[in-house]
Structures are given as C-alpha cells and as structure tokens.
Amino acid sequence: MYPLKTIVKYNPLNLADSANTFTTVYLGNYVPGNFNEGVGSHCGVDIFPIVTHDNIYACMDGVVGMAENKPADGNCIVIRHDNVPDPLDMTKKTTLYSCHLHLSEMSVTVGQLVSEGDVIGKSGNTGNVTGSTGEHLHFQIDRAEAPFHPYWPFTFADSKAAGLGFFESVNAGLGLENAKKFTVNPLVYLDRIETYNGTSPASVTPVVSKPIVSSVLVASLENTNPRSNVKKSTDSVPSNMWGFSDVPSNYPYATAINFLKSKGIVGGNNGQFHPEATVTRAELLKMVFGAAWVPLATGQQNYFSDIDPASWQAPYANTAKINNIIGGYPDGTFRPNNPITRAEAFKIIINTFHSGVLDTVSFPVFQDVTVTDWTAPYANFAKAQELIAFSGNAFEPNKLMNRGEVASAIYALMNRG
Ligand SMILES: [Zn+2]
C-alpha cells in the first residue's frame, strides 16, 4: 500500500472518503470521524494497512538515520532525504526526514542507503497505539530545521503545564505552530513530487492551486524562503547594530557577514568582525552548527581526550563526531583551539549542510589538488558553488581559513538556489 503517492491520491476535499485508509489526518485530531486539517497538532498521517503487517516502502531515495524501538513511537525508522525539492519552494533543494512509526518489523539499519520503493519494514502496533486505533502506520515528514526526529510539537512537560493528557493535547492543538514550522503535509508533498522527476521544477503545479480546505497549508506556503522563517527572535537586532566598522560595504564578503550577523550566527568584538582573523576548529563548528540548525549532542559521552566535558567546545565536537562531520585526529584528540585550514573547514561546512558532495571526483579543478586527495570532492564542490573567492587555480588546502571566508561559505550554502 505504500509508497502512498503511487497508490492513494491525496484529496483534501475528500479525506473522509471510505476508500482511503487515513484515520488521523495531518494536523488533525483524534476525534473519530473528524478529517479536518489544522484543528489538532498530530503532525503526521495515520494510515490503516490494507493487510495486517503490510509492507512499508521508502517514499524517496535516502539514508536511514534511525531504526530503533522507542517507548512512544515503537519501532521507528527515520530516513534522511538530501537534495529533494523544498516544499516551501520547489525550485530549491533541501533535506527532509521521513518518519515511520509503530512498525512490527524493521528491515533496514542505520546508515543504509535506500531507494524509493525499497521495503523498509512492516506496519504494526508497537509503541503508543491505543486499542481503538489498532495497527497503523504513523507517517510524517520533518523539515531539516526540526530540532529532533521524528519531531513532535509538544513535550510531556508542555502537556502537564496545560493540564492535558497526550490525546487531549493533540485535540487542543497544543504546539500547532511548531508542527506547522517543522513538518510538512507528507501526502501533499509526495503528490507534488510525483511529477517532479524528469520535469523542470518550474513546471510543477504548486500545491496552492489544488483545492485546499484548510488555510493552514496555504499559510505555510506563503513564505518562499525556508530559512527566513526560523530564528525569528534574532531578526529583532536593532538596525544600528547591523554592520561592523571593519567590514565596509565594498568588502568582498560584506553581504554574507551582515546576513549572518542579522541571524545571530556570528557576533563581533567592540563593533568589529575581524574578517581576516583565523578561526579555531571549535569556533567553526559553533558557527556552522548554528547556521544549519544542527541539534547539539547532550549525551554524557565525550569523544576527545583533549576536550573538557564541561567546556563549551564539548557538545560541538561530540556532535561533529556523532554525525560523521569530522572525526578528529588518530591520537584521539580534537585540538579545538587550533586554527582551521581551508581543507578542514570546507569538509565541515559542506558535510554539515548535507550538500550531496560526491565521494570521489573524476577531474581536478585546482592545480594544487589531485583527484585522489581526500579534499578533492570538497575543493571541487567549493569551486562549483563559489563558496569563496579563490585566487586563480589554487585551492591552497593548508592555508588558514579566515572569518570572512567562513561567513561566505556558510552564507552560500544557506541560500543555495
Ligand atoms: Zn499518528
């Protein structure tokens, strides 16, 4: 019965049709027979299987990020999909996470690459599934900006503070704004990209042209810049605090630096940015993780012998290790205070943004990088995406990266078209 996009046509005007198998709709509530979207904070769709323990298929190509049993979610598979059309602007690419809950069986493991249509498991009733709903698939798609996956828009503490139980909280729409911000209607999205393959993005019919019964969806599509609707609080930087005295408007990376400042991603010192100054390895992680909204590791494990677990550097270095963004040195150190080289910086920045960089390259673009260098894929990507201004044909992998260049690379990836 899955993937849904090839089996069941999403029709927002007819969600109550007995032919469909949806029990609880996106942003719906648990009131039986209620198929209205936007009235509750259920941030996925619940789908009855056609047969017990029905096959569940990957909806798009991706890599398995989670395949584990969790108390509420039961057997839960999360797949990361890189370079897929951004639901807020189909002409752009983004990363999304598809989440499959309550499975009876999981047939993939973390790190496994899956293709659209691959069987990843079977539907079930593990986790928090009440008797009345019975076996179903809870299917949702999270945006990369969600602080964790599968995203849920309220915590137990939030429910308690509101004096509500779990189901009452969903029915009351607790956390609805966060649900809209960090998830997308998975059925609408998959229907939209069904015609995406092989067609130019511009020709994809935008979902707003479909009959939409809920204003929620329309509202969520109005903002065409997915990055601009996050970190709202930092947009309130007073205008007299914009800009740095040592970054004149004609400075090569002035736009990038001022953009990151306005988002609260970089700061300065006494009104100066020091764009030519070097960046330590830990400082770089802080900047790029802030820009990419990478959730920081909060576990107790400390991976590097030269980092104090209580230091500010620890969560950044541990997060980099856990996410395979950078592994540290063979002797088990991270050397957080060392200035970072171009080669190292591009590896971290590009990996953090899941940019789909290739493992190998077939041709060199710089005279000082050979195709077998580990840095070659990053160097070629940096050149192709114009992450910084290179001088001539030189990548200068061991040159220290300066703050202005870091800002330029992050800015370019945040705003990649
Ligand atoms: Zn559900």
Task: Name the features.
417 residues, alpha+beta, Glucose Permease (Domain IIA), 2 domains, eight-stranded antiparallel beta sheet, three-stranded antiparallel beta sheet, 11 helices, 11 strands, 15% strand, binds zinc ion
What would you note in describing this structure?
With about 425 residues, this protein is an alpha+beta fold. It folds into two domains: about 5-220, Glucose Permease (Domain IIA) (Distorted Sandwich); about 230-415, no CATH class. Helix content is about 25%, strand content about 15%. It has eleven helices and eleven strands. The protein has helices at about 155-160, 165-170, 175-180, 185-195, 215-220, 255-260, 280-290, 315-320, 340-350, 375-385, 405-415; strands at about 20-25, 45, 55, 60-70, 75-85, 90-105, 105, 115, 120, 135-145, 185. The strands form two sheets. Strands 1, 2, 4, 5, 6, 8, 10 and 11 form an eight-stranded antiparallel beta sheet that branches. Helix 6 (about 255-260) crosses helix 11 (about 405-415), helix 7 crosses helix 8 and helix 7 packs parallel to helix 9 (about 340-350). The longest helix is centred in the C-terminal third of the chain and has 12 residues, at about 280-290. The two termini are about 35 Å apart. Bound molecules: zinc ion.
